[in-house]
Write a structure and sequence with these properties.
Strand content: 15-25%
Structural class: alpha/beta
Shape: globular
Number of domains: 2
CATH class of the largest domain: Alpha Beta
Distance between the termini: 64 Å
Length: 586
Amino acid sequence: MRQFLKFTLASFTGFLLVFLVIFLIFSALVAGLMSKDDKVTEIKKNSILHLDFADVIADRGTENPLSGIDFTSLEGSQTTSFRDYTRSIHAAAEDDKILGIFLDLSDIQTDMAIRQEIRNALKDFKKSGKFIYAYSETYTQSSYHLASLADSIFLYPEGDLMFMGYASEPMFFKGMLDKLGIEVKLIRVGKYKSAGEPFIRENLSEENRFQVSSYINSLYTNFLNDVSEGRNIPADSLRAIANDLRVENARMAVEQKLVDKLAYIDEIHDLLMAKADVKKLKDLNLVSVSDYMRAVPKGSISEKNRIAVVYAIGDITSGEGDDATIGSDRIAGALRDARLDENVKAVVLRVNSPGGSALASDVIWREMTLLKKKKPLVVSMGGLAASGGYYIAIAADTIYAEPTTITGSIGVFGLIPNISPFMKNKLGLTFDRVTTGKYADLGTATRAMTPEEEAIIQRLVNNIYDDFTTKVAKNRKLSLDSVQAMAQGRVYTGSQALEIGLVDRLGNLDDAIATAARMAKLDKYRLKELPEMKNPIDELLSELTGMQARNLEQEIGLPLRQWKTVKGILENDRIQARMEFLPAVQ
């Protein structure tokens, strides 16, 4: 009886806890929805905009009515739109209540193109004459890129500044696959199309080494030029500092004039309090981006004219996708909605994608061509718009890229694995088959391909590549010969892509929106973001269940991110327009 009562009590307690959690979530949702438009932050006089970059900064933030609840005990991570940062910075420049900006830096969790957009906003802010101070216990090259614009750069006395240059270190899987007995056949077009190389090689091919060297040197040159401008140190001198590793500790960072002063955080607080003319730390008004955004006017909600900003973020796949994946049905549907909406006068497609399914890319491209016939269409490239990510962009009237955007990679490949040796030798499993025709099991992973079958797949890949390059030539108004010469799967930075005609202008998302407005002859308009974000309750449940995976990724770092890329390649369509593994340059 005691055991029965114990289990009954445990079940009842569990039921009460689940009910309580659901009740709290529902109550928070209702409260969040009711207060969503009414909550406004009052900015006090002599405030300082505090940019700490603690959140992951993405192309599109999450607008969750439950965001007001403190879930930090669950060790989750928030995602903030980079436009929240840029809008805050631009607004702060005109706000008499904001004295300046405090960059509280350790690292910035975003890609190079988004970091460039934030840096450009800070550069504009300096024209206001207000101060920018930067502080960190340790500066990475990413965080120092932003800090280099500050009027004064402070570093913890026992801290560090990493100033070593850029490096890319891809991982190769052939040795592991050989040990497992898994054979992979790579069929591709383009000598630089290297996305499948990790499966068939143990090191970089000469062609891939050439292109990686080309684009990381372009990225590094952009970094050095920016730091040179901010610190008034010649770029060649900065290159020498990195090559000779002249900064090994905080003191040497000051000696090389990369840092102005060593200071503890309490000394920084004293400096900021003096600026704000307050005596106590509790009276120092440091305003976060999230708080400040609630004080920035969002424009009239009654404005009828709209510019739609369609976000295409992540790997390109067939089907619905989600907020972190470009599902062809969902993105094509968003473009179609914008085309049919009479209030939408122009469209900006924001692309941040390494590519993916060639078929899914073509589905989105088709909807782009239909949209372009009716309304101005501009593309803004984020950190990545490569391979399939470039494919979906080519139909636009104008393409913007950041100097650090990774784009191009015009090429196609197919991966056909043969797992039968692994299954037989490691697991004792074998396969047999009965077919109704010679090619009924073409592409199966349980036997090696015949030379004739390999030729069939090669023809299929060639046809897709020919279609890809032809569409690039037609949409970009380039000769097919010139496209063939610059294609071959080669990757370019935005600066390089501008020189060869793959993009039209260097600029950010705001530049693309302004161009779309001019093309549509709009003086006043509101932005309409598409596709609509997923249901907040579903997103919350996904957040709760995905936290362990995110924490694991943060702990393991690059190898796990590379494995996720491998998983995406293997689970996607066999024929893909995808660039090689994301460049790990820091």
